[in-house]
Amino acid sequence: METEQNQHEPRLVNAEGLLEALFDEQSRPSLRWLRKMQAHRVIPYYKLGHLVHFNVQEVKEALQSERRVNTRSSTRRLR
Fold first, then answer.
1. How far, rounded to the nearest angstrom, does the alpha carbon of residue 28 sit from its chain's CA centroid?
2. In Å, what is the CA distance from 18 to each residue of 1, 12, 68?
């Protein structure tokens, strides 16, 4: 049973865990798509050493609002 405090803590998952959390098996995009979105900073991520983790709630919000994460060079475009 989760406590009220645990429900408000960010849930960090790896790339595969993120895809499983956000999409059902039939509509799940590829890991390559996720890495492309990460590289173009469409979705937020956290790099801990050489490991990359995602906050499920932050990614949901980013995908729903179609916002871009601020980058050093705002001239980058998706190709």
1. 14
2. 22, 9, 18
Contacts 24+ apart (CB under 8 A), 18-22: 18/54, 18/56, 18/59, 21/56, 22/56, 22/59, 22/60, 22/63
Residue with tokens 């996720």: 34
Q: Does the predicted TM-score (pTM) go above 0.90? A: no
- 40 touches 78 (CB < 8 A): yes
> One digit per residue, pLDDT tens: the chain, 79 residues?
455 545 666 789 999 999 999 999 999 999 999 999 999 888 999 999 999 999 999 999 888 876 555 666 555 555 5
Please list, in sequence order, all residues whose beta carbon lies within 8 angstroms of the beta carbon of residue 69, skipping any fewer than 6 positions away. 41, 42, 43, 44, 62
How far from chain centre, in Å, is Cα 37? 8
